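Two folds, back to back.
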Amino acid sequence: MRKKIVAGNWKMNTTLAEGQALASEIIHMVEDETDRSVQVVLIPPFTHLYPINKLIGSLRKKHIYLGAQDCSAHEKGAYTGEVSAAMLQSVGVDYVIVGHSERREYHAENHALLAQKARRVLEHGMQLIFCCGEPLSVREAGNYLEYVEAQLRESLFELEADLWEHIVIAYEPVWAIGTGKTATPEQAQEVHAYIRSLIAERYDKALAHEVSILYGGSCKPENAAELFAQADIDGGLIGGASLKSRSFVDIIKACQ
């Protein structure tokens, strides 16, 4: 069975003290209130990774994991401000996001660069969360499936089949992030099913069936259960709602 995953992307929010408090609240609530059938990934800013890994402690590798929001395409060297995959692995990171819509938009990250980043993450033994999704103009034009297909083909489909056991896809309709809009469960399911069909076409059906595909478009406690009930939605990449422990844990419980 493919993994159920709820990952909280804190983006550029929380001081270290705030982040440690939030992580501690989430960890204790997950332990007290959930059946631990869902993998929970905390994805704080880079500055918080090492101390939050210490908070996760022995729960790491069981059902609570540590994630990073990005990594460099370079292995090491004179790249001021960059953080390498090796550095992330050395502080206990389990999952790394690559290709988030904000990185694509604000930092002009293209398919080729994201392919390099994905390769670095996998080479260092971490799990890859690869984001894909369309902006409003593409959704309204009706060619959103082709748009998502290009993102996957250009960045991931040169990878060897055996690496896919370490890859999670996150579909994030850009028009539904921070706008108050949410894709309907049917709209989300359509794209998730299409993504799975593309993986099956490129590799095989058995491999595609095992890949977890997360929804990443303004998922909240109010709509989480309906979204997660769809056949090809295996959890969520949560933004704003992951900054409130109660909301985040309620989403995790909905995924159970």
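---
second:
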Amino acid sequence: METLDLKGKTVLVTGGTKGIGKAIADELAKAGAQVIVSARTKPNETSHHFIAADLTSASDVDRLSKEIDDTFGGIDILINNVGGLTTPGGGHSTLTDAHWQQELDLNLISAIRLDRILLPKMIEKQSGVIIHISSVAGKQALWNLNLAYAVSKAALNSYSKALATELAGKGVRVLTVAPGATKTAPMVKFLEDYSASAGISPEEGMKQLMAQTGGIPMGRMAEPEEVAQLVHFLVSPSAAYLTGTIYAIDGGSLPVVN
């Protein structure tokens, strides 16, 4: 298991205080990495170095980068996990320009901005890994539920692939992880709200949502720790020849050949 060892590596996990981000931060710390986490607000407790930042703000990204440089001298691994579904469902007619911009800023531009400011030191060292946390929605949009979110994640997928190609000869690997339905607090709340609006139970709401995507063959949502274990492998020396690929972790729900 030495090829999964991350001792001596410094990692930044954005959105690293809860859900998938926290699971990734904890997993990489167990593997020996020095982990930095960022989020808009500080959690009640964290065992990782915390930096408050709103990554939709260019000035906050600049400040985050400066603190990392001043304290750690840079990073070896960047996990762009910040993102989320923040816009209403109902299709194109319910979405304003502000909704589209909000979703793009959170799910795409924040990652582009952070990559751009942290990449020079990785390129200088000829070493580094960037993981973009996307979503299966980027390959299978549900027009009535997540149109703007799905489009922003599809754009992230395309950007990630292009960046991987650009950096492949410079020692920096870029990969995308696309979770399906994952048992996080936001997902549970989304299911509750969706079910309440439809006048059905959360269990029935889950069945209806999954029916739109063909269901989950494995019969359950992913645990955040399962996504974290995939990320751990991808950032480790064991994955040294992997770059430019999107890894869906969805229990087999995507009804396409990747």
